[in-house]
């Protein structure tokens, strides 16, 4: 995956999280959107870990002694 693809997927994850918060707060506590928050956070964390792994493999991240 390239950086543009992961950025798009991170944007989708952020929209899921925002939708969950908006429906919970302003939607009168609609619980149908509650799983979107956890799904969005999971996607974001997985993509962040993938980005860190790829940076480490390319030698961008150096071990600090």
Structure description:
With 65 residues, the protein is mostly helical. The protein has one domain (3-56). Helix content is 72%, strand content 0%. It is built from two helices and no strands. The protein has helices at 3-25, 34-57. α1 (3-25) packs antiparallel against α2. The longest helix is centred in the last third of the chain and has 24 residues, at 34-57. It is elongated. The chain starts with a helix and ends in an 8-residue tail after the last helix.
Key features?
mainly alpha; 65 residues; 2 helices
Secondary-structure-derived class: mainly alpha
Radius of gyration: 16 Å
Q: What is the tally of helical segments?
A: 2
Q: What is the N-to-C succession of helices and strands?
A: HH
Strand content: under 5%
Helix content: over 70%
Which spans of ≥5 residues are poorly predicted at pLDDT below 50?
A: none
State the assembly state of the protein chains: single chain
Give the total of domains. Answer: 1
For the record, give the distance between the C-alpha atoms at the N and C termini, rounded to a whole number. Answer: 31 Å
Mean pLDDT: 86
Shape: elongated
Give a quick account of the main beta sheet: strands, pairing sense, barrel closure: none
Tell me the total number of β-strands: 0
């Amino acid at each position: 995956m390239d950086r543009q693809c992961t950025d798009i997927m991170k944007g989708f994850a952020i929209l899921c999280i925002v939708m969950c918060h908006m429906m919970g707060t302003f939607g009168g506590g609609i619980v149908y959107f509650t799983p979107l928050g956890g799904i969005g956070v999971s996607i974001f964390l997985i993509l962040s870990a993938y980005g860190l792994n790829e940076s480490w493999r390319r030698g961008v991240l150096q071990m600090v002694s």
